[in-house]
Specification:
It contains 25 helices and six strands. The chain is about 60% helix and about 5% strand. With about 625 residues, the chain is mainly α. Strand 1 and strand 2 form a beta hairpin. Bound molecules: L-captopril (X8Z) and zinc ion. The site of zinc ion has 4 residues, from helix 15.
Length: about 625
């Protein structure tokens, strides 16, 4: 999972002890006029100070239960995780209740911000009713485990394939039918989650309403230092800015897939069948690079082959990522990181393989959990996860309620910003590819490879929460879950289901962040922001020349500026934090457009006279 969600979970946890304390104190207060409850005497700074302390402690407890569950899925850890969550949620409800004492008062700005963030501190708030809270926690825990342990077993238990194997088929196979089977097989594993999910939505929505939000989607949209409706507009505006880039890529890729699979399988003017793009969710397409390579034979960009040839294992990959951050002046990872992280998939137990970074103790106990394989995709993901880890370490001295990304898109963008500096020159420097020939053709090849991840992702990043926002608001009801999902997939991504779908299916549940209840707009924002960060860091490093050639590897000044931003955490509105690094207060697609300028004009040339769109 990602960092912020962990943080949210941690925040949920932390509320417990105070909750109990409060309950007792208030009871005493009720029967004695002379004794004032401790909290009643607290001013806002003292309240915030106490909550910060308590939450850090409770977050530690929840984090321990959640990490244990994620790295050893079984009925006992599911139960313990659910109980820990329940306790955290109880604390959280009580803390929010206590914070109401300060409503309408004029507070110092730090306390006011902390109290506002406290209220937004969980991704699924529970109703006050203890029974419903228990149900919500149990459902969340159960869905997480179902996803982690899911397998497709076409012919009995001997034939089972897990997500890693099916993902590999999606990446490597070029056989239409084999791809279709892997796709359908994995998606069939989500069917049993449908009912749980619908119940979960009911309960979490009720919790959000009790907190004063119109539904859980509105609560999620409230964490961006602007009104939730404004944020919806903002996200649409950004999508509008990048939509033409996606349209151009889609048009070219569809054409090339037609060359591979034939016009009957990939018709012009129609959405692309979702199983042909090298990825289970068609979210990032780099795996089909060999099918769409603009100038075959011009450049060697096969990092996966190099990793395998050089016998890179999980630790060595993680050390390589650490070295990048250290080159920017970040510290070495603490010894406990190496001792407590899960870097490979254990052979003897079920785990949640979806990569995640963890901040266990609000201090230096940081970890990642990933089933690292020697592939380019996994390599990039390790650098991504360490971005979260270095954010945690950079803001560890902030009060607990400010220990978060400036907004959640910032958290997701740190490691990806580093990914943008992993240029052919850098990869050559660390010995993963041969010397770099820099010419127009190799530039287009290189840009294509990156665009298959970065541009292809944008509509996917946008639509996941569009679906959830509709689900939470009640616009999409359980009986339309799947149809609404495919409507958005077609509309935004221009992809279609490879086999007929019905409301027996629950395709959203086949994507980790739905059963994991991790908000997803963060990634959409990140994929725009990371180019803004990259540009700012390149300027700080004094880079001359096109943006796509810049790597800040080894540049201390860029590192200093980066750390300065990370250290602020969520202590001030993100606009201020963004301005400090980039000079602007707005998220904006001009940097991503600048970065891909060579590819874009090339694509326009290729697409001339073609029927683009779907
Ligand atoms: O979930 C992730 C990270 C963990 S925060 C591996 N990502 C999204 C996804 O895989 O769907 C990174 C890119 C988008
Ligand atoms: Zn992440």
């Amino acid at each position: 999972m990602n960092s912020d969600r962990d943080r949210l979970m941690q925040r949920i946890c932390m509320a417990c002890r105070t909750a109990l304390g409060t309950a007792i104190v208030l009871a005493i207060a009720g029967c004695s006029r002379t004794e004032q409850p401790e909290q009643a005497r607290e001013d806002a700074p003292a309240f915030v100070e106490r909550i910060n302390r308590e939450m850090a402690e409770r977050g530690h407890e929840l984090g321990a239960a959640a990490f244990t569950y994620a790295t050893y899925i079984n009925p006992d850890t599911e139960f313990l995780n659910s109980k820990a969550n329940e306790r955290y949620l109880e604390y959280f409800s009580n803390a929010v209740e206590q914070a109401k004492a300060f409503e309408g008062q004029s507070l110092d700005s730090t306390s006011a911000r902390a109290i506002k963030l406290l209220k937004l501190g969980v991704s699924a708030p529970a109703p006050k009713d203890p029974q419903k809270r228990a149900q919500l926690s149990a459902l969340a825990s159960k869905m997480e485990g179902m996803y982690g342990a899911a397998k497709y077993c076409p012919q009995g238990p001997e034939s089972c394939k897990d997500q890693i194997e099916l993902t590999q088929t999606m990446a490597e196979s070029r056989d239409y039918e084999a791809l279709k089977e892997a796709w359908s097989g994995w998606h069939s594993t989500a069917r049993p989650m449908r009912e749980e999910y619908a119940n979960f939505v009911e309960l979490a929505n009720e919790g959000a309403r009790e907190l004063g939000f119109s539904d859980l989607g509105a609560m999620w949209r409230s964490n961006y230092d602007m009104q939730p409706d404004e944020f919806t507009q903002e996200a649409s505006r950004l999508w509008g800015q990048v939509k033409p880039l996606y349209g151009a890529l889609h048009c070219y890729v569809r054409d090339r897939l037609q060359d591979t699979y034939g016009e009957d399988k990939v018709p012009s003017d129609k959405p692309i069948p979702a199983h042909l793009l090298g990825n289970m969710w068609a979210q990032q397409w780099a795996e089909i690079y060999p099918l769409v390579e603009p100038y075959p034979g011009v450049s060697d960009l096969d990092i996966t082959a190099a990793l395998k040839k050089q016998k890179y294992d999980a630790v060595r990959i993680t050390r390589a990522a650490e070295s990048f951050y250290v080159s920017l002046g970040f510290p070495k990872l603490p010894q406990s990181f190496w001792e407590r992280s899960m870097l490979t998939k254990p052979a003897d137990r079920e785990v949640q393989c979806h990569a995640s970074a963890w901040h266990m103790d609000a201090n230096e106990d940081v970890r990642i959990k990933q089933c690292i394989e020697a592939t380019q995709e996994e390599l990039m993901t390790v650098y991504h996860e360490l971005g979260h880890v270095y954010y945690y370490l950079a803001y560890k001295d902030q009060p607990y309620l400010f220990q978060s990304g400036a907004h959640d898109g910032f958290h997701e963008a740190i490691g990806d910003t580093v990914n943008l500096s992993m240029t052919p020159a850098y990869l050559h420097e660390i010995g993963l590819i041969g010397p770099v020939k820099r010419n127009d053709q190799s530039t287009i090849n290189q840009q294509m490879k990156i665009a298959l991840d970065k541009i292809a992702f944008l509509p996917f990043g946008k639509l996941i929460d569009e679906w959830r926002w509709k689900v939470f608001s009640g616009e999409v009801k359980p009986e339309n879950y799947n149809a609404a999902w495919w409507e958005l997939r077609e509309q935004y991504q221009g992809v279609s289901a490879p086999v007929p779908r019905s409301e027996e299916d629950f395709d959203p549940g086949a994507k980790y962040h739905i059963p994991g209840n991790t908000p997803y707009t963060r990634y959409f924002l990140s994929f725009i922001l990371q180019f803004q960060f990259h540009k700012a860091l390149c300027e700080a490093a004094g880079h001359q020349g096109p943006l796509h050639e810049c790597s800040v590897y080894g540049n201390e000044e860029a590192g200093r500026r980066f750390r300065e931003m990370l250290a602020m955490g969520q202590s001030q509105p993100w606009q201020q934090t963004l301005e400090k690094l980039t000079g602007t207060r707005e998220m904006d697609a001009s940097a991503i457009t600048e970065y891909f300028a060579p590819l874009l004009s090339w694509l326009e040339e290729q697409n001339k006279g073609k029927q683009c769109g779907w």
